[in-house]
Amino acid sequence: MNTILFFTIYSGVIAFIGLVSLFLNNKKAIQKASPPLSIFIISLLSAAYIILNFTKLKPNAILELLNWEIPFGKLQFGLDSLSGLFLIPLLILTAATSIYGWKYFGQHKQEKGHWLYFTVLVSGMVLVILSRNAIAFIFSWEIMSVSSFFLVITDKTNEKTNEKTMRAGLIYFVTAHFGAALLFIVFFILSNSSGSFEFASWHNLQLSPFKSSLIFILALIAFGTKAGFMPFHIWLPLAHPAAPSHVSALMSGIMIKMGIYGLFRILTFISPYQAWWGMLLIIIGSVSGILGVLFAIGQHDIKKLLAYHSVENIGIIMLGLGIGVSGSAYGYPLIAFFGFAGALLHVINHAMFKGLLFLGAGAIIRQTNTGELDKLGGLIKRMPVTSVLFIVGSIAIAGLPFFNGFISELLIYLSSLFGIIDSSNIPMAFLAVSTGASLALIGGLALACFTKVIGTALLGTEREQFPETVSEVPGSMLAGMILLALVCITIGMGSYFIVPILTGPISIMTGSPNFLNVTLMMNITKTLTIVLFSILVLGLIIALILKSIIKKNKPVKIVNTWDCGYSAPKASMQYTASSFAEPITDYFSIPLNISKKENVDSAFFPNNKWHFHSQANDWILTKILEPFILLIGRFFSSFKWLQNGRSGFYVLYIAIAILFLIVWKFFI
Amino acid sequence: MKENLLPWISLAIVLSNLYIVSSSRLTYQIRGVVVQGLLLSILPLILFPGEDFIHMIILFVMGVAIKGIIVPKYLLKTIQDVRVEREVHPLIGYSFSLFYGVITAGLSFFLINRIDILPDNFSPFHLSAALATAFIGIYLIIARRNVVSQIIGYLVLENAGFTLSLSVAVSQPLFVEMGILLDLVGGIFIMTIAVNHIYSEHESLSVKSLERLIQ
Amino acid sequence: MTNTDLLILSILTVFILGVVLSLLNSKAKHFLYIPAYISGMVFILFIPIGIKTIEYGPYTIMGGNFLFDALSIYHIFLVNFVFLITSIYSIGYFTRHIENHGDFETSFIRRYTILWQTFQMFLLIVLLSNNIGFMWVSLEATTLISAFLIISPSNPLSIEAMWKYLIVCSVGIVFGFMGTILTVVAAQNNSTFLFTQLVEHSDLINPKIILLAFIFIIVGFGTKAGLAPMHTWLPDAHSQAPTPVSAVFSGVMLNVALFGIMRYLSVTDLALGNDGQAQSILLIFGFISIFIAVIFIPLQHDIKRLLAYCSVEHIGIIAIGLGLGGLGTFAALFHITNHSLSKVIAFFSAGHISEIYGTRDMRRIKAASSSIPVWGSVFFISMLILIGVAPFAIFLSELLIVKNAFFDHRYIVTALFLIAVFAIFISLLKHTLGTSFGINNSKITENIKVGILDKAIVISVISVLLILGIWIPGPFKELLNNASLIIQNGVRL
Asked: Which of A396, A504, A551, B170 has the highest CB neighbour number within 10 Å of its CB?
């Protein structure tokens, strides 16, 4: 069967399921279960289908569905390996989030249209990936934005946050629309040059350097508002906490990647790349990466924290993309190859582990009714499986070995190392060094951040006694998380079997890659896979041996934590998230705009009301954009006297209009 | 006859304009409108002597009946019915208004004589009078804050339209007749009904009470 | 006598029948059904005329005074459809008012139905006029009739709105009269006063006078169409009129006035030798309108006033489309349908919301979509349609306009258009979110049963807009194409 047709039908079927869900009764178990389960099964099968057929994807195959009855050309779909690469995580994540979402709305009211918005979002994203006509692309893009907007604003799980939700929805939709408006311009420039709205006609346009740079900049902003790198990230930390968790997983895991997809796609139209594009991408990447993770450290709401980590990971992808672009611009295919490979693989990886983390966070919030880190603690005892899965995700996002984050970051590191080794070109070497250095800093800080999360939320003891109901989530929710965790481990351990899928997309980006580079990548991952397996096996053996030795000799004794001599430890004496983050956030307090609330008594016998709380405040929205919009609004409202209620004035306007026209047309 | 009388009639129309714009009382204004209406009714006879005589007579009769008799009567009756204050509530003073009237009249004559886009057989005089009248009509609506005074402004503006429409009176007499009917229907029936409504709700005909809907 | 003559006469008879029926003695409730039946019959009777026109192209009847072509048929169908659904809606609207308030007397309802039908009849005459005098007279008649529709019921504010509507539109209509006269003058000694003749002899028209005439026409008719800065009556009238009247004002009357401008536009453009002067005037007015909307939409608290300014914006968009010419004309015509349909259901739902909440003040309307699910969601969706969210039709027509501006290398137009529409997008979305969502403090419930017909109307209109947003059917596209060709090249028999 034709893969393009298959996925076009897939998007239709998925949307149809959503439509049917409107007529189902949520109170009946079977009717409630059928939409998520059917989405789960169909998506999982489709994921298997595309993975098996991945090598057979044709770059130039086009499916024409119908003659578009507006002057925009034909409705065309296509599926090349670049599209396929984004389709895989989309399908897996859809499967995981849908099965998770089945029972997510336990005590809360499930919105009637929830599955409709969800499925429309999914099919919109599929169509974005498949579109081969600019207008079809814009349409699918807008459908994606609208449905996710609905998902953000319709969550009523918490009445108190309703105002916040509205604000999040407003800001999200406005940013999305802003991006779409710029997207029009990008597509208009391209189609004006080629005379057609079809993507196929946009290759080899021989654009002037100015024109292609203009397209690049506009596309960067347009797709940046969706991808959420700095400074276009403003909607992410607002919208992700506002949406239901599996929707946040979908949005953060794959929807923001649609921006990355668009950027990749546009880059294929405007080659040859210019060197300064790569530089710009690397700057954006390192700024978003470093500031993203720092802001994450400064957050104490778990979903907001994860949202900032999305900014960080988009930064990492941009670093890979940037070094790839500069590698091709300066004529270093090796650097370009590994840069693009890292960026592309990180797209998949981030979708997987960020999806996992959001689902885990959602499970915690569902059970405890709070996402405040300083109110959680000791959850590993109550929710062991969720906690372990969350830890898996944390390790993956921190880029540690055995899990997938390590592999993609390694590829970007390699790219930067090759740049440093071959330092005949000073700018290239400089870019390579800064990429590597930023990546290292990001990795370290991310590790610190997740140590904070795990330490305060999962480990330790409960800060406030949770009610009895706080326990493990239903199996269906765990199933979604386990699916993602398995993918994380699979990519992390079996990278040798995964990386071949990257060559197709890279060849679309850079032209067909050097055979040697591919072999190099294969060799590296082969070694890596063997080494990781051996370490794992050896480690397990050693651990088992040690365990048996230790257990044999010493009986296990359960005692209190060492309490520095203070013999009545309380739960509130644990390290809080704010305190944990303070050393780091203090160091970066200016860019983070830290606000502190402290009430620390330095007397010898302090009273009980010690309190310390610090928070990183995003200043781009509150200090720059909103005042700017207010200023414009004030300027416009200074014209409000025009409609002053006096009929005489209104007639005067008519007279002025006619006089103006006569003077304009006859006397000028 | 045309050459001799037309300038004088036009001048008289302009003078009636000045009278209307500088009167302080509604009744005086209405008197000015009557005079203006009668002057306008004579215009078709002077402009097109001998051409399509029957139509011109019809126009003359309609003009006198509607502009000279029915409309002013009806307006007077309205202001007597609602027994309002007879002031016109000027937003701008009378002396300035008079000044404005003179200036715009001069400007109209100047403009019409300067621009040469009109066909040859058009007389500049009555067109200038039309333009000057339009300036006055608009001015009355803008600068008078009494509802009846605004209606009078509308009538003056209508007169300007009528004067202009006389340009095509020979070829399209129907159009001119429609213009006159507009006076009757639009200006009077509808607007005076509106005036009655306004008075019954607001107990005043000052536009001040009609300025609550803003922004 | 041709078939069309017969049909037109029967349509006229239907209207007279409607008026006569309204004069009979009966209960107030019964009168409410008359407009629905009458507009339904008119709608059906126009179908054969429409089919004939589409098949055979433009033709005139009754001594050339009435013209049928793609442009007029397109508008007529829109007018008839909007009147049909609004008449149906108004049954429920006034029935509720009679039940809840009891403040409407039989004579009031009778007056209302008579005015309503004559209003529709004169709008149709405007659309059918080939004679420029008839067009002007019937347009004037619509102003005078609809003025009294605003004051039902009458209260100080609605009377104020009516007064402003009357005075502003009357001044406009006088200018329209002058423009009509000047058009005849411009045609010089051909004594032509039919659009078809004007187009035929366009080479004989004096270009300077026709330009002057067009200036008067666009200001005069533009007053009625709600083009800024002559739009000032519009927010007052729309906010104070009863909901069905606001709906037809926005959904129909503005379009009809614009239709008059379109007819003159084709004549003027031909006489000027397609030099784009007439179009530039439309562009200017279009932009002033959009920016007026940018200024005033954020300041609104009255839900219907908000929709009125939204109409100013959309009329501006249509004017820009017409001003761009070429494909822009197509897009403008397409936008007319989209705007009318979406604005009508927006008014329906806004009317219901303000009825249930007992206020039009948006600061006191919260969580409409959850407390009154049907009308609250319809309002939200219709607002989304109006701000140009894909995949609905307004998105497509706005996209077409932007595309056309860009491809004509009019980058400033493109940029200004995008900026203004984006600014309106933000402020309208903010208003809509505030009213549709949030916490419902007042214990408001949907105490009005939603009639099955109302539901059917709303659902069908939304689905039409959705379908048009994705795909324009072939025949409809051809109709739009023919209509836009008529605007660009004039109507030729």
From this structure: A396
